[in-house]
Amino acid sequence: MNADFGGASAAPSLSTSNAHVAIAADKLNRTVPLGDRQLTILDDVSLTVNDGETLAIVGASGSGKTTLLGLLAGLDRPNTGSVSWHGEVINTLSEDALAKKRQGTVGFVFQSFQLLPALNALENVMLPLELANNDDAESRAKEWLTRMGLGERIDHLPRQLSGGEQQRVAIARAFAASPSIVFADEPTGNLDTDTGNEIIDLMFQLNRDQKTTLILVTHDLELAARCNRHIRLARGKVIA
To answer: What is the distance between the alpha carbons of residues 171 and 144, in angstroms, rounded to a whole number?
Structure first.
């Protein structure tokens, strides 16, 4: 294994005096139709996250955690309110402009890995690099897979990899394009405890090494406590 996990150390604290805002959400509201009424999923949520900071979003099932992450990541749009990345409002961009903005800005790590089953590990990591017209996509993908301890597994399909190995491929894919922000939705949800702890240690190490802003949704309060900050949602509102 090439990564030095460094045990269960927490992410480093940040001085906010000289910090730059990576993400700002202002009075986000998200509703969906439910019969003859509107169901409120998020209700007037505001927050800021600084460059290099780690933020955990916690709350019970149905509290709006994943919806909030989707809005912050530009995967969905609020009914009202705004989301900004480094000072630029993203929810008013066209789909094409937003897709272009995501390239090289954000990375994603999902609970279900979201690897393409017909592509091997190398091809899965190369794909977003190629979409961003990266000239050294193959070499960067190999470098990151080696860094994840998968240098001997680059030709393996997802079904030939364990859950932990698949999540390492997903992390390599998320970080290979050097994004400034990484979003993770229950990144250890499908992993056993030991493997999950390894994955989280790895993500925190990359947060420190790459100075990447990390925002994650989790139900694990011990994991949330390792982040610089956490917010708790209940019934679509920030309560703590």
So the answer is: 9
Q: Which two tokens stand for residue 240?
A: 């703590």
Q: Mind listing the pLDDT tens digit of every residue in the chain (240 residues)?
A: 444 333 344 444 444 444 599 999 999 999 999 888 999 999 999 999 999 999 999 998 889 999 999 999 999 999 999 999 999 999 999 999 998 898 878 999 888 888 999 999 999 999 989 988 888 999 999 999 998 889 999 999 999 999 999 999 999 999 998 899 999 998 888 888 888 888 888 889 989 998 999 999 998 888 899 999 999 999 999 998
| Per-residue CA distances from 72 to 75, 93, 96, 132 (Å) | 8, 14, 17, 21
d(CA 85, CA 23): 5
Quote the tokens at residue 179.
């994004």
Cα 97 to its chain centre, rounded Å, is 20
**pTM for the predicted model, two decimal places:** 0.85
| Alpha helices, H only, the chain | 65-72, 95-102, 121-131, 137-147, 163-175, 193-210, 221-225
User: For residues 151 and 143, what is the distance between their CA atoms, to the nearest angstrom?
Assistant: 8
| DSSP label at residue 158 | G
By 3-state DSSP, what share of the chain in percent is helix, strand and coil, each rounded to 5? 30, 25, 40
